[in-house]
Design goal:
The protein is of the alpha/beta class and 202 residues long. The protein is 46% helix and 15% strand. It has helices spanning 2-37, 64-72, 95-105, 125-134, 139-147, 152-155, 162-174; strands spanning 54-59, 79-84, 111-116, 184-190, 197-201.
């Protein structure tokens, strides 16, 4: 029947996706073994203290993985890099502020740079919830989390105004009661193609 054919198709699709994932992990492990054996790590050896005393809050956008360090002229050991979806601070005592406090108080960071221009722009909480349900998350689970006080609209929001988002991020850092006043905070928008920086808050 149509239903059986559909189930068989979905089964093979899932198996195919699992096979691809396992193959990619095998490739990564193979490369890692060769990397260590060939001592490819030697040129990256440094210590845990950032040489430039800078922390960068950035988006996790894959386009910036190599572009950002190249565009800013930074190398391994220069800065503390903090990444999330959108390069934003969604909670005053969340993981971003915690990471910044560790960078400042434990690793001597004196400058914080916030920047954005990423795939999280225009992100829709409603669309993401639909994606969740398509991947097997039950509506009852989503409803229960809502009942517990989680506002999906604010938690999973994107942003239409990138400049405003950067300003709000800089403001959240500057006004945080546990961030010392002698830390300089600036904000930029980075072009995800050319790497050009446009200052928003300096």
């Amino acid at each position: 029947s149509f239903q059986i054919r559909r189930c068989v198709t979905e089964f093979f699709y899932i198996c195919s996706q699992k096979y691809k994932t396992e193959t990619m992990i095998e490739d990564i492990l193979k490369h890692n073994k060769q990397f260590v054996e060939n001592k490819g790590y030697e040129k990256y050896i440094t210590n845990k203290y950032p040489d430039k005393k800078i922390a960068i809050l950035s988006c996790m956008d894959t386009r910036l993985t190599e572009l950002l360090p190249a565009a800013l002229g930074i190398k391994n050991g220069d800065v503390k890099m903090i990444k999330n979806a959108g390069g934003i601070i969604s909670h005053p005592f969340g993981s971003v502020i915690r990471s910044l406090m560790v960078a400042i108080y434990e690793f001597g960071v004196k400058e914080v740079i916030a920047h954005s221009d990423c795939g999280a722009c225009h992100m829709s909480s409603a669309r993401m919830i639909e994606h969740m349900k398509a991947r097997g998350i039950k509506q009852e689970t989503i409803d229960m989390i809502r009942f517990c006080g989680v506002d999906f609209d604010s938690w999973l929001y994107g942003f239409g105004d990138t400049e405003k988002s950067v300003r709000e991020t800089v403001k959240a850092i500057l006004e945080h009661p546990l961030i010392p006043e002698d830390v300089h905070v600036s904000g930029f928008i980075i072009d995800s193609i050319t790497g050009a920086l446009s200052p928003v808050v300096e």
